[in-house]
Amino acid sequence: MNMTSYASAMSLRAKLVTLNAAVVAALLLLAMLAWRSSSQQDEAQARQVRLAEALHLNKQADMVHDALRADVLASLLVGQVPQLAQDDVLRHVAEDARELEDALERLATFDELPAALVERVHRNRLAARSYGQAALDLTHRAVEQREVALASLPAFDQQFRHLVDELQQQGEQIGVALREAQALAAQEATLARQSLVWTCLVTIAVASAIVALITLAIRRRLGELCSVAQAIADGDLTRRASTGRHDELGALGAAVDRMASSLNAMIDDMRREARLAAFGQRLSDALDMADREHQVCAVASRAMTEVSAAHPMELLISDSSRTQMARAAEHPDVGAPGCGVHSPYDCVAVRRGSAVTFDSSTDLHACEHLRGRACETRSAVCVPVSFMGRSMGVLHAAAGPGLPFSADQVQQVTMLGSQLGMRIGTVRAFEKTQLQAATDPLTGLPNRRSTEQRLRELASSGKAYAVVMCDLDHFKLLNDRHGHATGDAALRVFADVLRSTLGQADLAGRWGGEEFTLLLAYANAAAAVEVVETLREQLARALRAGQVPAYTASFGIADASMSHLPEDLVHLADMALYQAKAAGRDRSCVAEPALLSALGTARRRPRPEADAAAPDAVAVEGW
């Protein structure tokens, strides 16, 4: 691992600690070098001082040596010179001898002296001791035996000269040692300065290299973090900055990663919500185009495939009595899960009024209708289908083991159930309103507006059709004798006969009062006569039950071959009905096309009663 890689692998705290350690180490090294240089210089100066002191002691010994000889010579003049006292001379000689020996003894203790010089000092010290002792002896003899002393003086002078030479050579050697010490001190001072300079340069270079490496590693790491942050800012939320480090930069990278993860989760939530909203909008648009309940169920089947291609689903809707539920839609690919709920309130989701999710059919709190199926461990989502607080059914989705519902799928199923409930309720309410608007409330037959609409449709189709106008005979008399409740019952019986007799493509509507209009598709006048005869027979058979008093009806017939205008056919059939009434009632008459010329001046003229003598002969609706 190179230094750059090693510096990059270090934590920020380790980098800063290393940087501080490098600075401290450099300062310590410089301090140690300065201390060593100072110590060496102090030692050199101390050695110089000691050598200078040794040289001074040597000179002092030389001077004492000379003084000692002078004292010995002075002792020879005792008694001849009045100022010289014998005791003083003896004391001076003893003191000088002792001082000479002491100086050389002190000089022998100097460790700074070379070994050869120390050996010379020791020899000179012994010679000085002998010289001092000779001086004392000569002084005593000079006091007592001056002639003997004078005879011993040459030998003493020889010792003196020998010691002079030794001290001179010793002083020269000390001087040489002193100069060498001075030169060595100067050389060491120069070396110390050079070492200090080189050490400073090397320390600065090493510290600069360490700082550069650490700075480069920090900048590289910060550059990586900056690159990751820029990529995240540009929308690449998959980039990550954390490398498992536990330093400050690692914490910063982890914070950047958490920010990216939070942004990614937030964007995923927004995308999920957008997908859910888009699904809801598409579902809403599809349901808005479904005007009939079967169309709504078809949309539900298609929506199930968008929710999931692998989960069976079914829509159970109750009938108008809200006591029984039947399957209205199922998944077109994987079919229905087969929920065993038969009525709305058998379903726990309907009872609770909210979506219910079961993780497994084996759970204690699982719905009982989930148990006993082919796959025991089955999860399910049940969403009540309701409108304005009234439950109409349930949307049931199930999942086998290993294929659970995702949170998005649960939301989609919930949304599907909610919107299906609103749309089915709206369609049913609209159909009920349309039915009420298009249906006669008493008989349940289409009212006059619906009949006219169907008549226009038949006329615009260009196909054959017939128009039959029928009227109950003596209906006002029936009301007067038996009451309006009986009259209403008679109208309902006649409406039931019409519904049970006419074909699926035909229409029977209440035109007004006791008058009805029949629209027979794909029929001409002859076929209409056959239908009317069947109606008369069925009416007679129905009245034999005795629920209402017996009555009859009259019919007027016209077909599309007589006119292409539907209003002309209505008037022709009305005129034929007039003829049937005039001919004695309880019969049918086919209109004559020639009567069209009279329609402009005589439309809906009063119908005179044909049998004025009959006690029950009354005009009906002004006829």
From TrEMBL:
Lineage of the organism: Bacteria, Pseudomonadati, Pseudomonadota, Betaproteobacteria, Burkholderiales
Enzyme Commission numbers on file: 2.7.7.65
SUPFAM superfamilies linked: GAF domain-like (SSF55781), HAMP domain-like (SSF158472), Nucleotide cyclase (SSF55073)
Superkingdom, natural source: Bacteria
Positions of the HAMP domain: 216-268
Keyword terms: Membrane, Nucleotidyltransferase, Transferase, Transmembrane, Transmembrane helix
Keyword flag Protein biosynthesis: no
PANTHER family: DIGUANYLATE CYCLASE DGCC-RELATED, REGULATORY COMPONENTS OF SENSORY TRANSDUCTION SYSTEM
Molecular function in Gene Ontology: diguanylate cyclase activity
Name by which UniProt lists this protein: diguanylate cyclase
Residue ranges constituting the GGDEF domain according to the UniProt record: 463-593
Matches recorded under Pfam families: GAF_2 (PF13185), GGDEF (PF00990), HAMP (PF00672)
Organism: Leptothrix discophora
Stretches that traverse the bilayer: 196-218
